[in-house]
Specification:
The protein is built from 7 helices and 12 strands. The longest helix has 14 residues, at 136-149. By secondary structure, the protein is an alpha/beta fold. Helix content is 29%, strand content 30%. It has one domain (4-241): Rossmann fold. It is globular. Helix 4 runs antiparallel to helix 5. Strands 6-9-10-3-11-12 form a 6-stranded mixed β-sheet, sandwiched between helices. It has a 4-stranded antiparallel β-sheet with strand order 2-1-4-5, with helices on one face. The chain starts with a strand and ends in a 13-residue tail after the last helix.
Length: 243
Amino acid sequence: MREILLKIDKLKVKGSGKEILKGVNLQIKRGEIQTLLGPNASGKSTLAQVILGNPKYKITQGRIFFEGKEITKFFPEKRAKLGIAMTWQSPPAIKGVKFSQLLARISTFGGSTSREVAKGVEPNLLEREINVDFSGGEKKMSELVQVIALNPKLVIFDEIDSGLDIKRLEKAAKIIKKELVDKKVSILLITHSGAILNFLKPDITNVMVQGRIICREKDYKKVLKIIKKYGYEKCKKCKLLAG
């Protein structure tokens, strides 16, 4: 049986004085792929930020464990060193710094294949300034290379499929399989559309609505079928997904 890498217990979180997460429980095993579906403003990205340790959000209840150690009060830097990495929906542009320089800076984390991956992702990516005049798809692909360079144990992909055309989406999925899945890195795929699931088959699919994970299901196709036909509100009442 695979050991539990990440455990979130009864987590409640406030942001800007408003309760956003309302008692979230989640366990991700080592080498497991899980996805988190949900409508806009359901709390998906907030959960990702809290796992990463963003001080913008206040934990009012609950605890977070990583490899059996409580990290609830750890700063983001310490969590990154433990092996938690994340891609961003809208990463900033950094003028005057080449992508190759960034990879060299973070290479101490052990991602020795990141330069080779970068060369296969986008033409001339290494010699371009970070995210300067990048298209949406180029930003997503550069974020993917960066998390690989960190040599992580857990990667949170926040809407990695948003804005990617089918060609780039398939390429991203192949890279994720080779550089992360095959190396037993745990993955949490946060997605609104579910497009990435056509290429990466999750072990567990979670649905979040109004700050709560309201269902978990092994067969992601059943979940997508119900959401497509009835919307997310159906998940609250569906006996199939109530486990």
